[in-house]
Each structure stands twice: as structure tokens, then as C-alpha cells.
Task: inverse folding
């Protein structure tokens, strides 16, 4: 079998799998083993999902989004809400695509502090009584309100 | 070496953006697959350079502000759809703007 024929056969295998045919059905169709079908899929996947191909895909999607933006931004400027919503979605998609969305700011230390800082009414009363008795927090580090 | 953009590169990129498969582009333009990939790689490298991405971010922030300017008066007049859009635009601006703020200190000499 020539190289071109092999390439064509590989493409047909991938196409049938993409159309939802099972590996066994594809193998039976071409009179090859299931392992052969898997090998072809793996080889194609390795190429399609390579780092370089991902960069190309991001670039092309970015361009396609910008084309749509250019069209619908005009209509949004004229006050068309549908176009405005679409533009917003496009900005959102582009930001995600290019990694431009800052992560939501959740600071675990602040969260822990805010949970700790929430006192029950009983604890609040107990602390108040401690303060009156001079058992409260030190006024200055290492010093207590009662002078100890 | 700086990449030189040719008309063929532009045609290749336009065709790919329009969804034409690389194989088909090779057939239509009579070039090898390696040529198509080289064109895409060169343009992608330029487009995705950090300074270009920051520019794009700033452009988008400007457009989001523009959406706000257009739809805020409609929202104020009671248009629920416009109000939702303004809220979403503000949220998105905050997210991307936050990224700029986070990056800013690193670029400033201490």
C-alpha cells in the first residue's frame, strides 16, 4: 500500500469513529484489528493535540472571534441589545481563550480569619466580662490592661 | 529572524479562519502542508506575543466600556435586558481589569 493510500485509510478510520461507529465496527469494515484502529486514532490525536497545533487553534479562534466582534460591535453601538450580549460573550470567550481572566480572589487566610472572628453572643458576653475584669487582650504586645 | 508576511500567508490565514481544512488550502493554493503550517505559526507567534495580548486586553476593556456607555442610559430608563448587559460588562471588565492591576506591580521597579 502506498503512503497516500495509508493516509486516506487513516482518514476514513478517523471519520467513521468521529461519526460514532464503534472501534469493532470500524475494524470489521476495513478488515483490520481493533488495535490498528486505536493506533491510528492515537497517532492522529498526538498530531492534532500537539502544543503547536493548540497554539494555531487558539490563534485562529481568536481571529474568528475578532471578525465577529467587528461586525456586531457596530450594531451594539447603535443600541442593539442582542448584539451587545453577543459582543460580551465574545469578549468573555476571548479572555478565556487567551487566559486573560484573573482568577476570582479567594484568600483562604482571610476566610479563616472571618470565620474565627464571628463570635456567638455568649462568647461576646464572656469577652465583655473579661474586658471589664481586666482579662481582655493586651493593650500593647506583652502587656495586659490590668498592668500584669 | 523576523517573519515576512506575504499575500500567500494572508490567504492561508483567511482560509483557515473561514474554516477551510489545511489539506484543502494546500490543494487550492498549490502549496505544501508545511508552508501552510509555517504561515500559521509565524502569524500566531506574532499575535500571541505578550505585548500584543496586553494590547488586545486593553482594546477589549475599551469596548466593554463602550457597551456600558451605550446601554447604561437604557438600563437607567428601565430596560431589564440593557441592565443585565451592563452588569455583565462591568463584571467582565472587573475580571480582566483585575488582571492588569495584578500584573502592574511586577512591571514596576521596586
Result:
Amino acid at each position: 500500500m502506498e503512503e497516500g493510500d495509508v493516509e486516506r485509510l487513516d482518514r476514513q478510520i478517523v471519520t467513521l469513529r468521529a461519526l460514532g461507529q464503534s472501534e469493532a465496527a470500524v475494524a470489521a469494515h476495513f478488515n483490520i484489528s481493533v488495535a490498528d484502529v486505536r493506533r491510528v486514532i492515537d497517532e492522529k490525536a498526538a498530531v492534532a493535540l500537539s502544543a503547536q497545533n493548540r497554539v494555531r487553534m487558539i490563534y485562529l479562534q481568536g481571529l474568528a472571534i475578532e471578525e465577529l466582534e467587528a461586525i456586531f460591535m457596530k450594531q451594539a453601538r447603535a443600541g442593539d441589545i442582542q448584539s451587545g450580549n453577543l459582543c460580551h460573550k465574545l469578549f468573555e470567550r476571548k479572555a478565556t481563550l487567551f487566559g486573560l481572566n484573573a482568577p476570582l480572589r479567594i484568600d483562604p487566610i482571610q476566610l479563616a480569619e472571618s470565620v474565627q472572628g464571628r463570635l456567638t453572643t455568649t462568647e461576646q458576653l464572656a469577652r465583655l466580662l473579661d474586658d471589664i475584669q481586666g482579662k481582655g487582650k493586651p493593650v500593647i504586645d506583652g502587656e495586659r490592661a490590668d498592668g500584669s | 529572524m523576523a517573519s515576512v508576511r506575504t499575500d500567500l500567508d494572508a490567504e492561508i490565514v483567511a482560509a483557515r479562519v473561514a474554516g477551510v481544512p489545511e489539506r484543502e488550502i494546500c490543494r487550492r493554493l498549490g502549496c505544501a502542508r508545511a508552508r501552510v503550517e509555517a504561515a500559521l505559526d509565524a502569524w500566531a507567534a506574532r499575535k500571541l506575543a505578550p505585548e500584543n495580548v496586553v494590547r488586545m486586553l486593553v482594546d477589549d476593556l475599551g469596548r466593554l466600556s463602550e457597551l456600558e456607555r451605550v446601554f447604561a442610559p437604557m438600563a437607567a430608563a428601565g430596560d431589564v435586558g440593557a441592565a443585565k448587559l451592563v452588569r455583565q460588562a462591568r463584571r467582565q471588565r472587573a475580571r480582566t481589569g483585575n488582571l492588569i492591576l495584578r500584573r502592574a506591580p511586577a512591571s514596576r521597579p521596586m
In short: Helices of chain B lie at 7-17, 22-29, 33-47, 50-76, 80-107. Chain B touches chain A through 33 residues (CB under 8 Å).
